[in-house]
Amino acid sequence: xxxxxxxxxxxxxxxxxxxxxxxxxxxxxxxxxxxxxxxxxxxxxxxxxxxxxxxxxxxxxxxxxxxxxxxxxxxxxxxxxxxxxxxxxxxxxxxxxxxxxxxxxxxxxxxxxxxxxxxxxxxxxxxxxxxxxxxxxxxxxxxxxxxxxxxxxxxxxxxxxxxxxxxxxxxxxxxxxxxxxxxxxxxxxxxxxxxxxxxxxxxxxxxxxxxxxxxxxxxxxxxxxxxxxxxxxxxxxxxxxxxxxxxxxxxxxxxxxxxxxxxxxxxxxxxxxxxxxxxxxxxxxxxxxxxxxxxxxxxxxxxxxxxxxxxxxxxxxxxxxxxxxxxxxxxxxxxxxxxxxxxxxxx
Length: 347
Fold this sequence. Notes:
Layout: E1 12-13, H1 14-27, H2 33-45, E2 56-57, H3 59-73, H4 78-82, E3 84-87, E4 90-93, E5 105-108, H5 121-129, H6 162-175, E6 179-184, H7 190-198, E7 202-208, H8 211-223, E8 228-232, E9 246-251, H9 266-269, H10 285-293, E10 298-307, H11 313-322, E11 325-332, E12 338-345
Parallel strand pairs: 5-8, 6-7, 6-9, 7-8, 9-10
Antiparallel strand pairs: 1-2, 3-4, 10-12, 11-12
């Protein structure tokens, strides 16, 4: 961006700041530069993207914005810069808060072994639908500077995963209520919290091997006003007291082939936790574990809803069939790509 004004310099139009930022991002090879520039400034100012033409930016907020654009030029994802992402009806934080108690959800003290996506579409959709704004930016806003690289403890929720939630809700509606649900590898809590919010009659449990991720998910459940029971667990370890009780299991497990990770876009490769991406040599390691280890937790007739990577649907269905699960079908994501595999445990 052009040299920043000093504190005595008059405000500049937000649309001008966005135009210059988008040019810089484009020159740096950043995908969707206009969207990145608009989202970063509209979120900073607390307005909708369509309102940028009617707002000014103070010198102090221009300095913050310039810092954000510099980070985006280095291919840090918009959501990491902001520290949060939008998913369906939710705003989900991506960082660890300071540990504090809350009434909406809790991490159950279950034992587990010690253990160490599609760039901005959820932000575009939610930022475009936000209501209310202040006409002029009059004061500097406090902004979380995000976490990058190996410091990140959760995957950025992506629009593809909304198809998983839709499929899970559909299976629950067919089964009827009440319903007990388990989300394995919850990360930020996107799936579990969406289900708890949209089907409040369900009892929702969520597990993750990462205590840091569970703190993030717990915060998100509390911020979004839903009740979810969280468990520190590696697939099923520590959940024995819930044996035979789940009507539906849902998961977005790591499914990228280990050898493909170096070739991912830098927004993913350098800023999402590798443990949330790496599915082993063929990308299917976690599906094998899910099908092998989860039957003791499931009721007879329980539904299993799994997100899969491109070209993996038939292989995952076959893994389930070989483990005694009945294949039900495949659901596409919004782009028409097979993204969700449905199976049933008939015991």
